[in-house]
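Suppose you are handed a protein chain with no further information: no name, no annotation, nothing but its sequence. What can you learn? This example shows the usual starting point.
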Amino acid sequence: MEISVVIPVINEEKNLIKILSSFEKNLEIEFIFVDGGSKDNTVNLIKKAGFKVILSPILRRSYQMNLGAKQAKGRVLLFLHGDTILPFNYQKIILNTVQKKQFIAGAFRFKIDNVKPLFRLLETLVNWRSQYLSLPYGDQGIFIKKEVFESIKGFSDIEIMEDFELIKKVKKIGKIYITKEAVITSSRRWDKLGILKTTIINQIIIMGYYLKVNPEKLAIFYRQRKNK
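A reasonable first move is to predict its three-dimensional structure. Written in C-alpha cells, the prediction is:
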C-alpha cells in the first residue's frame, strides 16, 4: 500500500457528497474516515461509497487522525479535512515529492471554492506563508511518511493547533515541500462569519498558541466565536 488518506469527520454529510465522488478507488490508496460521533448521514454515506469508517470514542481532530494513522497500511500518510478536494493526480504528486532531497513532510497549495476576489488575496497570503515560512496548515492536506509520523509520536493530542504543532516538530528534522498543485477547500467557515472576522479569530488563536495559552481555552474561544 502506497498512500493512506486519513480523514477526520463530524456531521459532514453535505460536503461528503462532493468529496466522495472525487475519490477514485485504487489498490495503492487506502481511504480511512474517522468519525467523531456524527448525528447526520455521514457514516452511512461513507459506507455506501465503499470506504472504511472508524468510529472514534472521542471527538477531537488530533485524536481521530492518530487513531486512523494507527490502522493505516500505507507507507505515506495524507491527512485531509472532510471539506477538501484533492487535485486529480495527487497520488503521483505525493510520491514524487516524498522522493525529494531532505523531505520530511509536504502539503498542497491552497485554493478556496469561492469566486470572490478577496479569497484570491487570502489564497496568496496562505501560499506565501506556506512556501516561504514552511508553515502549511491542515486544510492544505499534510502528508508524511508513516515511519516518520510514528517516530515523532504523531499529532499532539490537543484540542486545537495540532497541525501547527506537527509542522513545528518536523521542521527541526527535515524540509517541508509545498506542491505546485492545489487542494480546493470549502469557503464555508469564511462565509459564515466573513473573511475579516474569521481571519482575526484565526490570528488570535495563533497568538495564543505562541503565548502558551492552554489549548483547551483556545478551543473554547474558537468554538464560541465560530458558533455566534
